[in-house]
# Entry
Amino acid sequence: MSLRGVGKAYGDAGRGLPWVVKDVDLHIGDGEFFVLVGPSGSGKSTLLKMIAGIEEISAGVIIAEDGKAVSGPSRDRGMVFQALDAPLFDWLNVEQNVSFGLEQTRMTRPERKRIAAEHIQLVGLKGHERKYPHELSGGMKQRVQIARTLATDPRIVLMDEPFAALDALTRRVLQREMVRIWQRTGKTVIYVTHDIREAVVLGQRIAVLSSGPGATIRYTFDISLDYPRDDLSPEYADYVRRVDALIEEEAVKQWDHGGN
# Structure
């Protein structure tokens, strides 16, 4: 996937209204785990939504893995949201939620059940198929979201701070599980987070956005650490310090210009 001169402005930027993001150039490799970080308000989620095709692009072009320009949502791009409850259907159990995206295909019912079962097992929820969302913990709900997204077999999985609302222990468990799932499926993952330690635990590359308005890619780190990553190692700590220092520098610029 490639982003070429991508920008987003709410309103008419030509009349002086500020750009949220501007002149973003990126290439994300097939099967890569790519993480976006940056100061608050730098447009990370906006950029992810443009890649997903649910936010209109104001400038530039995004080329999907099939070589076509992104012009709207597609089954090739699946999204996992931060919210724990809203993305799930309360009246459907785990199996039904996971297979929901397959209902519009020509698959037979046994095929849909087989694919749902495979992905429920993949995310560690085997035995919970008949439970409804109100019977699940926050971490289990996010596993259902991930399973439902993967069940439709997208080429790219987009994740917008999916573990931010969870407690620290559950978040650490799901970070390890996410690496396992990514390695097992070989999907391209584009992941947004505020958590620098999480970014270094997960990402093969980490792109740091500059402060807004008009944020762009300030720097991209190649994380040359083996998985699973030891968050007590000096090498891990060095990457965290370097990414953190760059984000802090951008945040200070934002504050100096009266940003939030």
